[in-house]
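User: Hey, quick favor. My workstation is busy. Could you predict this chain's structure for me?
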Amino acid sequence: MSTGKKDERSIVRDISRIFDEEKPPSLKKVIRHTNLATKRFREIWSEWWGDEVPPKLEVDLILVFEDRVRDDVLLVGTEVEYFKGRAKSFYDGLQQALSFALFGFDSLVLWHIFSDNMEDHEIERYVRPLNEIVEGLELPIVYLATKLVGDGKFEFFAPYKFYSSNVVDVRYLLEAIMGQCDGKRNPLLSREEVVRRRKMMKVLLEIPV
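Assistant: No problem, here it is.
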């Protein structure tokens, strides 16, 4: 799947389809483009905004993995940013991914996807500074940077550097995401109100409580 002429929403749609088709047993559900600012989610955010409409907050991908830490489910909120040139900044999506912590996701992922038309050295200009911020400030997010080079084929730039001569498939990618998320959890889940929002969100997403 060439990414050259695609936009962000179509990239997310295609990736969710690939994940559904190729998912390993540990991945139980894939949900795309979930708007957390709708009436359906009113009970989650009413304590902040009352009856007013809250700021737009959409989760591009929600990945539901098996888990042994909290009620057998690992909820991963994923913000996807698609780069096909120099129009974006290296920190795009960071604020959005961090905001997912308030809703009780177990892990937060910022996924930068780069067009297959971009050169490796161009991509590194985005990846290096963001890696430095995430690691240096010990931010509780998983930063994933890949180039999508085929239908379900990826080159890794972060958290691993597998590119140019190494291409990985969907199953490897999903195992890497789960492994990274397992080791980096949302620290706000130590708060009772965040755990309560998580339970509510599971009901609304039709995930067994």
